[in-house]
Amino acid sequence: MGRRRIAVAAAMVVTAASTGCGIVGGGSPTDNSLDGLSVSSPRFRDEAPLPSEYSCTGQSGNPPLRWSGVPSKQTKSIALVVDANNAQGAAEVHWVLFNINPLTTELAQSSVPRGALQGVTSAGKVGYAPPCRPDDTYRFSVYALDAELVLKNGAELHTTLEEIAQHTIARGRLSAAHIE
């Protein structure tokens, strides 16, 4: 897939997520509004700066995250999308993690839960791509899905985002205003 198509897919996820419509593909699999998840981190508060140790100048990998409010009966898996939106309107996806066990409620620093898979980022790599632009807003979005995604590790960005959008039943977000 070309970088232009990846950029377009990333722009779609950022635009849709920022307007409250879900991610790529029009949001929820139903016409009902989505349930809300609570997302937090022991390392930074919502709208506070992302600690530099989780950026491209640090050595810590992904920050630890916690979430709650997952609709237990309907949720078959959890997905995480880390993206950025800058003042120029450019979108960049830094991490796509999917097929997380639905009973999981936290993600440790620098880790991928057992059984979870990762998709390709905007940079064309698999795994957490630490953010570098100090003034961007970074969003850590957690999605409760009504299915496990039938995708392989390293799945293409647009495919992964579309599948997440089609199966989202609840979502929540933790945002970092910039990098400290």
UniProtKB/TrEMBL annotation:
PROSITE patterns: PROKAR_LIPOPROTEIN
GO molecular function, one term: protein kinase inhibitor activity
Signal listed as a keyword: no
Coiled coil (UniProt feature): none
Keywords linked to the UniProt accession: Protein kinase inhibitor
Pfam families in alphabetical order: PBP (PF01161)
Alphabetized InterPro entries for the sequence: PEBP, PEBP-like_sf, YbhB_YbcL/LppC-like
Aminoacyl-tRNA synthetase recorded as keyword: no
Superkingdom of this protein's organism: Bacteria
Protein family: Belongs to the UPF0098 family.
NCBIfam families given in the database record: YbhB/YbcL family Raf kinase inhibitor-like protein
Alphabetical list of PANTHER family matching this protein: PEBP (PHOSPHATIDYLETHANOLAMINE-BINDING PROTEIN) FAMILY PROTEIN (PTHR30289:SF1), UNCHARACTERIZED PROTEIN YBCL-RELATED (PTHR30289)
Designated name of the protein: YbhB/YbcL family Raf kinase inhibitor-like protein
Lineage: Bacteria, Bacillati, Actinomycetota, Actinomycetes, Streptosporangiales
